[in-house]
Design a protein that fits this description.
Blueprint: E1 4-7, E2 12-16, H1 21-33, E3 37-41, H2 47-59, E4 62-65, E5 70-73, E6 81-84, H3 89-102, E7 106-109, H4 120-127, E8 131-133, E9 140-144, E10 150-154, H5 159-168, E11 176-181, H6 187-199, E12 204-207, E13 210-213, E14 223-225, H7 230-242, E15 245-249, H8 262-269, E16 272-276, E17 279-283, E18 292-294, H9 302-309, E19 315-319, H10 331-341, E20 345-348, E21 353-356, E22 364-365, H11 371-381, E23 388-390, H12 403-409, E24 413-416
Parallel strand pairs: 2-15, 3-14, 6-7, 10-11, 18-19, 22-23
Antiparallel strand pairs: 1-23, 1-24, 3-5, 4-5, 7-9, 8-9, 11-13, 12-13, 15-17, 16-17, 19-21, 20-21
Length: 417
């Protein structure tokens, strides 16, 4: 376990953001399901993407990793595969239906907190449609072939289940309808899946009640450049809102990434935001003020929002956050614990966080082996009154291994100990 000590400092400068982890998962899977060679850039160094690459190789894809990207040759299915998803919930939830639709016998395993995270609803859907599924938690052994024409899922289930079934749909050789009962949470992530499938030649039609995939479609190999990560951008936008000034390059301003909502969130806090070509400029506005925000569609942004709220005048209320309890940590609890460690007044609800901004002191924060907690509160620590120690700093490797390098480049004072 690594710890870091963050000293107060100004954060100003330009950051070349990493490729979107969320997009990269989907692009790699669609490329592996295409019957030919795809070229994907840039190379992604995060542990979660490494998990997806390893799992796809175990299923029979040929993936060569170069300095600038990947060459992916479509899957020749292998039975008896062992897929280590490490700590990547995305890898497991996307590939359980995909591997089942390929008709392979496989075992899914994981590390860290992932074996504790539930897969109940997805496993039940698989069981009802031709798959023997040995458990509802990792390790999960599967056999049989996933087939079906109509799947019904509640809107409050993980959007990754919906995405996994959609990506598996073209393998079923029939028309497939995915019906959503109630409001779909984290809907932008499913829209991202639809967009990436479209890039690879598979059209997904949006229905008033869900999604439809016409049978007979095939994934077609492509050359793809993965856009920059809006989730990563949120941490540096927080830094700018708190008193810095940053320029963030490589972002797609027509992105399907849900965390592009950061533009509205940090503007609401009072940050000044402008766009020139493909670069986003963010700096502190006249006053940082508390906001009310629903996290149902943007759960990954909550740590950055909470860290910013600690300094804002008045109250910030984050609602619709129940899903955060099933992340790499119980993110409602760990966010509240981190805020209290910095002397911030916070109230924890079952699915909400209420923060009263004010003076922020240094302190000792448990990073809880959660990449987003470590990154968000490293930014907050730069504006605190005194030094802050954060444990589990190595967790940033899950999504953004270069975070502390980029953090230091814009003036962050960080020492590992």
């Amino acid at each position: 376990m690594s710890n870091v000590r963050i000293s107060p400092s100004a954060l100003c400068g330009k950051v070349n953001l990493p490729a979107s982890k969320s997009v990269a998962h989907r692009v790699l899977i669609c490329a592996a399901l295409a019957g030919g060679k795809s070229e994907i850039k840039p190379f992604c160094t995060s542990r979660d993407i490494y998990a997806t690459v390893c799992a796809l190789k175990a299923l029979g894809a040929e993936i060569k990793e170069g300095k600038t990207g990947y060459t992916v040759q479509g899957i020749t299915p292998k039975s008896g595969a062992k897929l280590n998803c490490f700590e990547s919930g995305s890898t497991a939830r996307f590939l359980l239906p995909v591997a089942s639709a390929l008709g392979v016998d496989a075992q899914f395993i994981g590390e860290g907190r992932l074996p504790q995270r539930p897969f109940d609803y997805l496993c039940e859907v698989l069981r009802q449609n031709g798959v023997t599924c040995g458990s509802n938690k990792l390790p999960i052994d599967i056999s049989g072939t996933f087939k079906g024409e109509h799947f019904t899922l509640p809107g409050n289930v993980s959007s990754q289940y919906v995405s996994g079934i959609l990506m598996a749909a073209p393998l079923m050789n029939c028309d497939v309808t995915v019906e959503i009962k109630g409001k779909l949470e984290s809907e932008p992530y499913v829209e991202m899946t639809v967009a990436v499938m479209g890039q690879f030649g598979v059209k997904v039609e949006r229905l008033s009640s869900g999604y439809f995939v016409k049978g007979g479609q095939k994934y077609i190999p492509q050359k793809v450049k993965i856009e920059a990560d809006w989730s990563a951008a949120a941490f540096f936008m927080s830094a700018a809102a708190l008193g810095g000034e940053v320029a963030l390059s490589g972002l797609n301003f027509a992105s399907t990434q849900g965390d592009m909502a950061a533009l509205d969130v940090f503007a609401a806090f009072g940050a000044e935001i402008s766009i020139v070509s493909d670069t986003l400029f963010v700096k502190k506005g006249k006053e940082l003020r508390g906001i009310t925000v629903c996290a149902e569609q943007i759960p990954d942004m909550v740590p950055a929002i909470a860290a910013t709220a600690a300094f804002a005048k008045g109250e910030t209320k984050i609602t619709g956050a129940a899903r955060l309890r099933l992340k790499e940590s119980d993110r409602i609890a760990t966010v509240c614990s981190a805020l209290r460690a910095l002397g911030v007044s916070v109230t924890e609800g079952a699915d909400s966080i209420t923060i009263l901004g004010g003076t922020v002191s240094g302190g000792k924060i448990d990073g809880a082996n959660d990449h987003r907690i470590v990154m968000a509160f490293s930014v907050a620590a730069s504006f605190a009154q005194g030094e802050t120690e954060i444990s589990h700093s190595e967790a940033v490797g899950k999504s953004y291994p270069e975070f502390f390098r980029d953090f230091s480049k814009i003036g962050g004072k960080v020492n590992e100990f």
